[in-house]
Amino acid sequence: MESTLRRPPVKSTTAARGNSIKFIAGGIVLLGVIAFVMFNTIQANTVYYYTLSEVQTQQASLVGKTIRVNGPLDKTSIRNDQKNLVLEFNLVQDGIVLPVVYQGVAPDTMSSGESVVAEGKLDSDGVFRAQSILVKCPSKYQESPVQY
Amino acid sequence: METVVILGLVAVVILILGYPLVNPQQVPAHAIATSDNDLFGEREIVFETLRDLQFEYATGKLSAQDYEQLKARYELQAAQILREIDARQAVKQGNSPVAVTCPRCHSQMRAKYKFCTKCGAKL
Amino acid sequence: MANPQIAEVGNLALVLGLAASVYVVFAAVFSQIKRRNEFFLSARNGVWLIAGLATLAVVILEWALITHQFRFEYVASHVSRDQPLFYTITALWGGQQGSLLFWVWLLSLFGAIVLLQHPGESDPLIPWVIAFLAFTSAFFFSLLVFVSSPFTLLAQAPADGIGLNPLLQDPGMIIHPVTQYLGYVGFAVPFAFAFAALVTGKLGYDWIRTTRRWALFAWLFLSLGLLFGMRWAYVELGWGGYWGWDPVENAALIPWLTGTAYLHSVMIQEKRGMLKVWNLVLILLTFLLTILGTFITRSGVIQSVHAFGVSSMGPFFLAYIAAVLVVTVYFIYVRLDKLKEENRLDSMLSREATFLLNNLILLGAAVATLWGTVFPLISEVIVGKQITVAAPFFNQVNGPIFLALVLLMGVCTLIGWRRASPRHLVRNFMSPAAVAVVTMVVLMLIGVRDPYGLIALVAAAFVLTTILLEFYRGTRARMRMYKENAAIAQAQLVNKNRRRYGGYIVHLGVILAVIGIVGSTFFQTSAQQNLAPGQTVELGPYLVQFDRLTVTREPNAQVIGADLVVFENGRQIDTMRPLKAYYPAADQMTTEVAVRTTMRDDLYVILAGWNDDGSATLKVIINPLVLWLWVGFGVFILGTIITMLPDPREAKALERVRAEKAWVGA
Questions:
Q1: Which domain holds residue B43?
Q2: How many angstroms separate the CA atoms of C298 and C175, rounded?
Q3: In whole angstroms, how far apart are CA C120 and each of B14, C304, C609?
Q4: Mean pLDDT calculated for residue range C459-463
Q5: B15 occurs within a structural domain
Q6: Could you tell me which of C485, C444, C439 has the C-alpha nearest to residue C464?
Q7: CATH of span A48-136
Q8: pLDDT digits over C316-369, tens only?
Q9: How much is the ipTM here?
């Protein structure tokens, strides 16, 4: 019964089918453009994560590149010049010391921080010039929600 | 004390879940199976489409020619769906022959209908 | 009862909740396969039972929080004695275990509401809806039972708890998770109906009609979640912005994007019987993305500023997502013959075509954002090295995508359903295009030079005109067709057509928000200076004078403030007081910015630091037009509510269909 009762197809089917092909083609082109832009941009914006020992061994090749460094914070080394807003501290792990300089407002969690993720560039003098820093706090749920 | 609470809680769970299983006179008939292809839904869509067309024509988004053409096409579709519903109902009711006249559009249809299949008026 | 016994009851409620959920899945499925209705009734009872057990667990945890039962690990780490009661109560969703419990509690309540909405047994979808919702609550209960229970006890109760992170002690931050979760959990219901329709093969219009409001509800709360999150970041985090492409922010945005696509494309299925498979895919994606969002937020899997530490929930979430994905895709494949399109595109120049385009663009934005968000994970798996994607990636990819979306919003308003005639289209284009040109000239005359900002503002002006024009034309058409006066026609236009004009109001809100975003993104200016008392800093039209530092004590914090006087064009207009608060219990500082809002711009002042000599370091930011972001959100929410209001015409149609169905049994 079903088949006999199905109503006949609407007449302009061929034109409509042409439309959907056009549309699918357009859609593919559009998604292709988005994908192209995406991969192009991602190349320019990827930031590699390095540990302190990797920074030390590959120092020469890393100078001038934007990278992320993750390491434990030496709290005694924090110097915060509030007048000029220059924050200096050291990341220390297994005897390797990486001095970090950050120009800007110190995160509220700095003094209680355990480790720091710093994003920026390594200078030829071995100082890491951070453009942004992210402080991680010891407590499980208190991970610092402050980003600068 | 807590043993009582725990046992009580477990008992409540079993009671609530099990009651319908051991109390068969509570069980009503099984779910009514509705048709897979929803003719009434399709009809409402076509009606909605026709209303939209009229409004779009009124707000100057359709040319008169396109409006007439599209309107004719969807009216045809609506008629087909209504006929299909009609046919299905006829099968269900074993072709009751007594006719009734719609008070609004004066078309004839089977007596058991609650609504006019042409204009939707209540019978 | 002592603490250990109460904790035991709490854990028992979770275990029984898990057992009942598993039972309900089997009972509901069995009732359909074997046609044993008594099992369906039992499953229905089970839904109520799950809601009751989840409520019991919530009540126990709340009791422990409010009465400071510090032997509960959860209480000890999220509540302290000096914490205000409000933050103590809301600590329920302040941590991982509590928020998972909160999730499953909302889900169980939604399940009960679904049963209330469908009291009869005649709807063939309901058993499968129940089965799917119970399956999902079984998943969350098993996380609570097997991975991290909120009722874990410490060997000994500490004298005081750690307390809620002071940064989270803000009303906005308390409401934000609730709205976010209502949105996340809300999408489970439309998906459950979609799933039921797939399993039963009843893929008509019923599942879409019944879940339209649920989807809008979930979407509304996702939007509110974004609003509160952005607002909190703006006033509380103190870096002058509201959006940082943080993984947790992205996790909230991505399902919102696919949900927006779904809300649009589902209209085409309703109106034209097209895109059936596409809609199923979109609701599946949206639902899974809400689960993924919950996972990203609650597991800290991706290095993120909001996340709650690493936990071992990953495999559970992956298994659940994989199971839902595989089963749903299988059923879509099985039902392909029932998912045939009933209509085809009449024309490429039609609103349907713009909706399809909008869908592709929204999906593109979602994929790009998702890709950037999970990229560190993927790179770690493949290259063995975490590679993060910096914020500029998201701006560079999503900027053009969103601009295209905004333009499309204008084009779609000008184009009618089914077929637009090019001649009419050109005529309709003329005045918005003229307004756009005038806007561009005016903006350039007042000195706007940034090309991206200029393009975006001109596009916004174009779309704004098309929407206002649409209201004007609609009103005029009504005045002609129904002989109404202008005011009545205008009100009736929205009232009689709540979905369409509610939607336009939503678009209006989006455009206002775009104006705010563009203003504060491209035209932000800032200055940073160390000031001795009496010194001033100048920025734009404002002159900010620093008077003195003040120190005040609050019950749980010590507060340092900077008293400022603000001048504009040499005239004193206001005083401001940015703060820093130190919380000894958590050994943490928080920043409280001072914001002065006008329609033109926000003056945003941060107290960056202070010195023993009484000087203060201030960061002053001017965020142009940012007020319109919040106003836009308000309009947006109003529009969404209008589309959710019961539509008298729709109700009548539904009633007619129901009456006829009951009559014919067809």
A1: 39-98
A2: 17
A3: 24, 47, 65
A4: 94
A5: no
A6: C439
A7: 2.40.50.140
A8: 888 999 999 999 999 999 888 888 777 676 667 778 888 888 998 999 999 999
A9: 0.71
